[in-house]
Write a structure and sequence with these properties.
Blueprint lengths: L3 H12 L1 H26 L17 H5 L5 H9 L4 E5 L5 E5 L2 H7 L6 H10 L5 H28 L5 E3 L1 H18 L12 H22 L9 H29 L11 H7 L10 H32 L1 H15 L8 H5 L2 H13 L5 E5 L4 E3 L2 E3 L4 E5 H6 L14 H4 L20 H16 L2 E5 L6 E4 L3 E4 L4 E5 L4
Parallel strand pairs: 2-7
Antiparallel strand pairs: 1-2, 3-11, 4-7, 5-6, 8-11, 9-10
Helix pairs in contact: 1-2, 7-8, 7-18, 8-12, 9-10, 9-12, 10-11, 11-12, 12-15, 12-18, 13-15
The protein binds protoporphyrin IX containing FE.
Length: about 475
């Protein structure tokens, strides 16, 4: 009877140990040479301009060095092409593109059925009516933050005070994402670093980080590193809190308090959602979706706000113009902001678009070609990963004249070419929370601009770092002065 043990013994007896080792080593070397040297030179992608082949680490040491986004921008310039070939870890070839034509096509690669039906289920949660209900949450939190800043200014005798605005943006978005996500007020503004605030901030920043580390080290997440032990603790806390919230919501709607028109949190909407068979979602899907939304909406919005404040402080004329518009449209902080009021802030909208052009916090995303494809004569083998580099797209001189210049006016005078400006991507995976984010960011910026002048702290310099989002480092402090008209 066949058994691996008997077979191996037979092979060793007939070939001998020495020859066996030679055969195995030769097979491994041949495989390596074929996949790493021959395939590379036979690949249809060899016709693309690109970087020199490096077998083990690919071009990744270069990619990971320097400021976030800078290497991709440099590669594109160096190869004089908006689409290039480079090598990932293990010598795997990849396409990197900042070409609007290729972006337009790759972004419409089909999404799976599961993704499609989840997206259908989530769409109503981001309707204008729901967002309208969430607006007071953004406004209340902006008011609380402004009150704290006013108090600091008062104590400083209305001299400029230094404020860690990056920390405040983290807190305000944590507060809003917890209220609009879970109908749970964590009081990050004004409560210092409570255990809950620390745990939520860490957890929401790590949901993404975990996938990066674990893609390189198998079972990474299960290894007992101190950081992982911390994650397990945090996860236990968060899971139990969210489960409690789900049960509370199920109870609330079971008791018949259902008034969907007034709902202002994603958890309620998910608990009330019904699939095609009229069934409610099981707890695990509610959990997955609500944490997914919170994760996707937290760091992205807080860091984009930080970049906008940094740019407003760096360009006083632009700040003045944005403030004049705010004072014209919504000077009175006691009047509630509405969707219509915020729509009138056309210049502030351009400031945000230009901020997101220069600092797209999601600087790149990857799509995999499921089948062999041909885009504009370029043969793309099945399985090729295409890195759509928004940082390079937004800063390429071919796509944007004076690309490095901060110029919100460029969005006022011309219509933007399709696929030239994609901070929220487009296509089946486009950001579902873009309107939510814009509403929140305009509310926060308008509330700050009508009360304060923002200046850079003398000597402040920063570099872009790639954390979960591309953010400034060291964290942004600004000199904040109360305006005299207030
Ligand atoms: C300035 C803020 C934001 C930026 C720049 C941003 C950007 C993006 C981008 C680029 C994607 C696509 C990622 C990819 O395809 O790889 C995405 C997806 C997503 N975003 Fe946002 N986002 C922001 C705010 C928000 C907010 C506030 C929410 C929710 C409250 C949200 C929820 C989502 C969700 C659920 C997805 C996954 C969509 C899907 O897979 O169908 N985002 N976001």
């Amino acid at each position: 009877m066949w058994s691996p043990h008997v077979n191996l013994q037979w092979i060793i007896q007939s070939v001998g140990w020495r020859d066996l080792v030679i055969i195995v080593v030769t097979a491994l070397v041949t495989r390596w040479v074929y996949f790493n040297l021959i395939c590379v030179y036979l690949s249809p992608l060899r016709k693309l301009p690109g970087l020199p082949y490096r077998p083990l680490v690919g071009n990744m040491l270069d990619a990971l060095s320097g400021e976030a986004m800078s290497t991709a921008i440099r590669w594109i310039k160096q190869c004089k092409s908006l689409t290039i070939r480079y090598y990932y870890f293990g010598g795997k070839e990849r396409i990197l593109t900042a070409d609007p034509k290729l972006m337009g096509k790759a972004l419409f690669f089909l999404s799976g059925d599961v993704h499609h039906s989840m997206r259908k289920l989530l769409n109503p949660a981001f309707s204008i009516n729901v967002l309208q209900n969430m607006l007071p949450v953004f406004e209340n939190k902006a008011h609380s933050m402004v009150s704290l800043w006013l108090e600091e200014c008062r104590q400083a005798g209305n001299q400029p005070v230094q404020i860690n605005v990056q920390d405040f943006m983290t807190r305000i978005t944590l507060d809003t994402v917890c209220i609009t996500g879970l109908d749970y007020n964590i009081h990050a503004i004004g409560s210092g670093d409570t255990a809950g605030v620390k745990i939520f901030t860490r957890y929401l920043r790590q949901v993404g980080g975990r996938t990066i580390s674990s893609s390189f080290i198998p079972f990474y997440y299960h290894l007992p590193f101190a950081a992982n032990r911390q994650r397990w603790e945090d996860e236990k806390y968060i899971i139990s809190l969210i489960k409690e919230r789900i049960q509370a919501k199920r109870q609330q709607y079971w008791d018949g308090c259902e008034n969907t028109a007034a709902v202002k949190d994603f958890l309620s909407l998910l608990v009330l959602a019904r699939d095609e068979d009229g069934q409610s979602l099981p707890d695990n899907l509610v959990f997955q979706n609500v944490t997914g939304i919170m994760f996707a909406g937290f760091d992205t919005t807080s860091v984009t706000l930080t970049w906008a404040l940094l740019l407003l402080a760096s360009y006083p004329d632009i700040q003045t113009r944005a403030r004049e518009e705010v004072l014209e449209v919504c000077a009175d902080p006691t009047q509630p902001l509405t969707h219509e009021t915020l729509d009138k802030l056309g210049y502030l909208n351009c400031v945000l678009k230009e901020t997101q052009r220069l600092y797209p916090v999601v600087s790149n995303t990857t799509r995999r070609a499921l089948e062999e494809d041909n885009i504009d004569g370029m043969e793309i083998p099945a399985g090729t990963n295409i890195v759509l580099h928004l940082g390079a797209l937004h800063r390429s001189e071919e796509n944007w004249p004076d690309a490095e210049k901060f110029e919100p006016e460029r969005f006022m005078s011309t219509t933007v070419e399709p696929y030239h400006h994609l901070p929220f991507i487009t296509g089946p995976y486009m950001c579902i929370g873009s309107k939510y984010a814009l509403l929140e960011m305009k509310t926060v910026l308008a509330s700050i601009l009508r009360e304060f002048r923002l200046q850079l702290v003398p000597g402040y310099t920063f570099r872009r770092i790639q954390a979960l989002s591309v953010k400034p480092h060291p964290p942004l402090m600004l000199a904040v002065t109360k305006l005299s008209h207030v």
